[in-house]
Amino acid sequence: MTTPVLVIGIGNPFRSDDRAGLEVAWQLKHRGNERLKVLEVASNPLTLLDLWKGHDEVLLVDAVSSKSKPGTFQIINAVQQTIPAGLFNTSTHNMSVAEAIEMARNLNQLPKQMLVYGIEGKNFQFGEVLSPQVNEAIEKVVHHILNHIH
To answer: The domain at 5-148 falls in which architecture?
Structure first.
């Protein structure tokens, strides 16, 4: 039996669109797919290195702020390319997701396959309501991930 694909949704549940990665994770969990192991991370991105240890394929989902149109999403193959430093600057932690990935790269601790889904947010203020554009993007990312594993 192959190891499941690990999906890690990242975000802050109390900063509006910053919760996008967590929402993707919650939706995937509720759909129940034996090919996926789904986790949520709302704390220090450094924990990611321990979470993906032993997994061959990892999909990370997080909100980004790249000045793109809210609700657009991009997919970065983190094994083949570096993550732009400013992309995940919405984090309230000392280290961003991009910095954690690059640290793992330098320590040879990246999984064999890693895709990073960045959902462009609109509002990162305190609150629990997603902007409509991000809400639509979440559903698209969920479908993309489910198609990816089949």
So the answer is: 3-Layer(aba) Sandwich (3.40)
Q: Pick left, alpha or beta for residue 95 (phi over 0 → left; psi -120 to 50 → alpha; otherwise beta).
A: beta
Distance of CA 52 to CAs 72, 95, 133, 136, 142, Å?
Answer: 26, 17, 30, 28, 20
Burial of 1 (0-12, 13-18, 19+ CB in 10 A): exposed
- pTM, entire model: 0.92
Burial of 24 (0-12, 13-18, 19+ CB in 10 A): buried
Check whether 54 has a pLDDT greater than 60. Answer: yes
Is 145 a residue whose pLDDT tops 70? yes
Token reading at 29: 């969990």
Residue 143's pLDDT band (cuts 50, 70, 90) = very high
